[in-house]
Every structure is written in structure tokens, then in C-alpha cells.
């Protein structure tokens, strides 16, 4: 029997995983100023959590360890995304990822809001142009599986990747994306080479070592602590590759095993208690990120 304190209303849970740019090559610039990228992305089991329930108006409550920096007003991408459905909803966002940190937190939250609103309302997802207008990284976060992303982020090709044990580290410095792009001097770098089928994580990491993040140098110039993060990560036992994600400041280290990544994160959290860090294997988070009805 339905308890009158728990009315028979659907509540949707949606997970918004962190996005990591394993490699990011800037290959050109459009007439409108946006940069053309060729990037390989994968998703982390670490992320934010949203709930959605029917309501007369669209309202957002933000909580969680990283919630203080996140606005609850209409400028929040979650509300901009949910508003595309034209109906009210009570949305909660538990913010675990640091804001403005190069791992797509806001974009992944917006994508999760789209998945959640589609489940709540039975409406289809907005068209591709409306999704892209929310932000260049929102399309790739809508179906969080490893992908090669081109254009400004709208041209997606799924890629099969082995799970990549990783540590994510953010030194708690916000690096504004536009200023990092603006500081780029070379904007016509070579694209990624053809992405082979990787036999295992080691082969993938070996291939990644020959690629780059072209935004890393301008981000380090603006926030030198990123160079320190990369050096600390690279010196952790078992770290095979350390690189920045997106426009920073979050960096990732790739390890030979999940146990090594966990031990490295424990050591890093002890040596740098002011830095945000997390561990988990990067890869396909589509199942974990699917909207579920309670
Ligand atoms: O699309 P999004 O709002 O995430 O982009 C933020 C800013 O980052 C843009 O206004 C632009 O200055 C810069 N950007 C860019 N090229 C991209 C993505 C973002 O120049 N591919």
C-alpha cells in the first residue's frame, strides 16, 4: 500500500561522470572563434549525482562537498538543460567534482539533466544543435563512453578502450577555459593519428604517450601549480603517464593496476591534503550514468 508520506511520484536518479581528455590536439579555429579539436575522451566512475522529481516549477538545489562554488540560479547549466523540456521539475545536484576544472563537471551535469528529464517526462532528448548550444562538451557527455571527438566536440566516433586505472588531481585553482584557448599561439597542430585496437591498457598508455594535450602549456603558464601536479603525479610509484585534462587544472595519472592507482591516491592525499583527488578506472560509464526510476 502507498504510504501517504511517500506519494506515488517517480524520482529519477542520474549519475554525471567526470570526462577526461586522454589526448587533446587543437587542429584549427572556426570563424566564430571556437577551436577545432581532435580528442580522445574516456569517463571516470567518479562524478556528480542528480535527482529529478515532478514539480510545478523548475528548481535546483545544490549540495555536496564541491557545492559551495556552484550557483543554483538560471545560469546553472543543469537548469538551462532541463528548461529545454518546457515543464517543471525539482532537481537536486550533489556536487563532488571541482567546478571549472577541465573534467567536464558542468557539461556532464547538463547531460545528466537531459537524460533525467527525458526519463521523467517521456519526451525525447533535444536535437543535436540544442544540446551543443549548452556547451561544446555536452554532446560527448550525453552518452559517456570512450570516443574520439572532433569539430568543437559535436563530431563523435565511439572507440573501444581497455579500462585505464587512473588518479585525478586538482590543485584547487580555477583556470577559465576561454583564457587558456586565447593564450594558444599555435592553433593548427596535427590531428591524432588513427586510433588502433589496443590489446590492453599498457598498449593504450604507450600510444597515448606519443600524443599531447595542446592546452597544457598555456594552462601551466597561467597556473604554474599545474606543472607541480604533473611532477607529483609522475613521481608516484606505478605512474606510467601524467597529463592535464581539458583546459585544466585537473590532471590525471595512468597506472598499471587499480590497486596501484588507489595506493597512489592515498599517498597523494596524505602529502597534499589541500588538493582534490580521486581514483578509478577510466572507460565506459554509460551503464552507471543511465537514468533510473525509483
Ligand atoms: O562551449 P563552452 O561554453 O564550454 O566553451 C567555453 C569557451 O571556451 C568558449 O566560449 C570559447 O571561448 C572556448 N572554447 C573554444 N573552443 C572549443 C571549446 C571552447 O574556443 N572547442
From TrEMBL:
Residue intervals of the GHMP kinase N-terminal domain: 76-137
HAMAP family: IspE
Protein name as catalogued: 4-diphosphocytidyl-2-C-methyl-D-erythritol kinase
Positions contributing to ATP binding: 98-108
N-terminal signal peptide: none
Gene source species: Rhodobacter viridis
InterPro entries registered for this protein in UniProt: GHMP_kinase_C_dom, GHMP_kinase_C_sf, GHMP_kinase_N_dom, IspE, Ribosomal_Su5_D2-typ_SF, Ribsml_uS5_D2-typ_fold_subgr
Pathway the protein contributes to: Isoprenoid biosynthesis; isopentenyl diphosphate biosynthesis via DXP pathway; isopentenyl diphosphate from 1-deoxy-D-xylulose 5-phosphate: step 3/6
Catalysed reactions, as listed in the record: 4-CDP-2-C-methyl-D-erythritol + ATP = 4-CDP-2-C-methyl-D-erythritol 2-phosphate + ADP + H(+)
Protein family according to the UniProt entry: Belongs to the GHMP kinase family. IspE subfamily.
Catalytic residues (UniProt): 19, 137
PANTHER family xref list: 4-DIPHOSPHOCYTIDYL-2-C-METHYL-D-ERYTHRITOL KINASE, CHLOROPLASTIC
GO biological process entries: isopentenyl diphosphate biosynthetic process, methylerythritol 4-phosphate pathway; terpenoid biosynthetic process
Entry keyword annotation includes Endoplasmic reticulum: no
Keyword Disulfide bond assigned: no
Keywords: ATP-binding, Isoprene biosynthesis, Kinase, Nucleotide-binding, Transferase
Single GO term (MF): ATP binding
EC number: 2.7.1.148
Function: Catalyzes the phosphorylation of the position 2 hydroxy group of 4-diphosphocytidyl-2C-methyl-D-erythritol.
Domain GHMP kinase C-terminal, first and last residues per copy: 199-270
Amino acid at each position: 500500500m502507498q504510504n501517504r508520506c511517500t506519494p506515488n511520484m517517480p524520482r529519477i536518479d542520474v549519475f554525471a561522470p567526470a570526462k577526461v581528455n586522454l589526448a587533446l590536439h587543437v587542429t584549427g579555429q572556426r570563424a566564430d572563434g571556437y577551436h577545432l579539436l581532435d580528442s580522445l575522451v574516456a569517463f571516470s566512475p567518479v562524478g556528480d549525482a542528480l535527482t529529478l522529481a515532478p514539480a510545478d516549477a523548475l528548481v535546483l538545489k545544490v549540495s555536496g562537498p564541491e557545492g559551495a562554488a556552484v550557483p543554483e540560479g538560471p545560469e546553472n547549466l543543469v537548469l538551462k538543460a532541463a528548461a529545454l523540456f518546457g515543464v517543471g521539475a525539482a532537481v537536486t545536484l550533489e556536487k563532488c567534482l571541482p567546478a571549472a576544472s577541465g573534467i567536464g563537471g558542468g557539461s556532464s551535469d547538463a547531460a545528466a539533466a537531459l537524460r533525467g528529464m527525458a526519463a521523467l517526462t517521456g519526451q525525447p532528448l533535444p536535437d543535436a544543435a540544442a544540446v551543443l548550444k549548452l556547451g561544446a562538451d555536452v554532446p560527448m557527455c550525453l552518452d559517456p563512453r570512450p570516443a574520439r571527438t572532433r569539430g568543437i566536440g559535436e563530431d563523435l566516433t565511439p572507440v573501444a578502450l581497455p579500462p585505464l586505472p587512473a588518479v585525478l588531481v586538482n590543485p584547487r585553482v580555477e583556470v577559465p577555459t576561454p583564457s587558456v584557448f586565447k593564450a594558444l599561439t599555435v592553433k593548427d597542430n596535427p590531428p591524432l593519428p588513427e586510433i588502433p585496437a589496443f590489446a590492453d591498457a599498457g598498449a593504450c598508455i604507450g600510444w597515448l604517450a606519443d600524443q599531447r594535450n595542446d592546452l597544457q602549456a598555456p594552462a601551466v603558464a597561467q597556473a604554474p601549480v599545474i606543472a607541480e601536479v604533473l611532477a607529483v603525479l609522475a613521481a608516484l610509484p606505478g605512474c606510467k603517464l601524467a597529463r592535464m585534462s581539458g583546459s585544466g587544472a585537473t590532471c590525471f595519472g595512468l597506472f598499471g593496476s587499480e590497486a596501484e592507482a588507489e595506493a597512489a591516491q592515498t599517498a597523494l592525499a596524505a602529502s597534499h591534503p589541500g588538493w582534490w583527488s580521486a581514483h578509478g578506472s577510466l572507460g565506459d560509464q554509460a551503464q552507471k550514468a543511465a537514468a533510473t526510476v525509483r
